[in-house]
Amino acid sequence: MSGIYRDVALLRGDEDQDQSPADLGRVPITVIEPEVHARGGIVVLHESREFTGSLLEFMRALATEGWIVVAPDLFHRGETEPDHEVFGDELFADFDASFDWLTRRGVFPDCIGALGFDHAGTAAFLVATNRPIGAAVSVAAPGIAEPLTDDAEALVRAAPNLQAPWLGLYGADDPDTPPDDVEKLRDATARASVASLLVSYPRLGHRADNPGTEDDDSTYDARTRIFDWFDSNLR
Hints:
It is globular and about 45 Å long. It has a single domain (25-233), classed as 3-Layer(aba) Sandwich (Rossmann fold), CATH 3.40.50.1820. 31% of the residues lie in helices and 22% in strands. The chain contains 6 helices and 8 strands.
């Protein structure tokens, strides 16, 4: 099957239960498949309760490169608080369900990556410190020196535990990720046993991956780095 569609991924331990997609045993996912034979999969973690046009465009671009893109609904548990964020056991359970969905379709575990933007970039980083996946990318991920929530670990503390090659993209003028914190994260990830690359774009206030915002040269460079990182590490 190619194109974009919705499906459900089973939470681990619930495979034998007869549950509806609305039950806690299943995670609603949005899938975009390539027209050609898939060479791997990318789990896109996103903090929005709905997809923006730019995020869908990015996901389609990944699929065009041959990746099966799976985006789990991290808010499927029905939390009503608008500022509720999914970290800790809930995050890892939803990622594992998406990961298993991909492996059941023949994707090798080391050909599965994680990608996140903003707070979901923090989530992608933490997944890479807890799961032996193929690669991870975080864009403008905050919570570097202090954890975002009680369920999230500060990135500088988690960094030495990275289990997957990690790419981090930051804007040097982003108030949510001060330059001193970004440098601390660069040092911390360098102590991990896997490859890491942290890029900080000068004169950029926030995300370098959004076209038409602040600096189109940074946008082109950031997108190229994301695609190249997955190309190089998901093999």
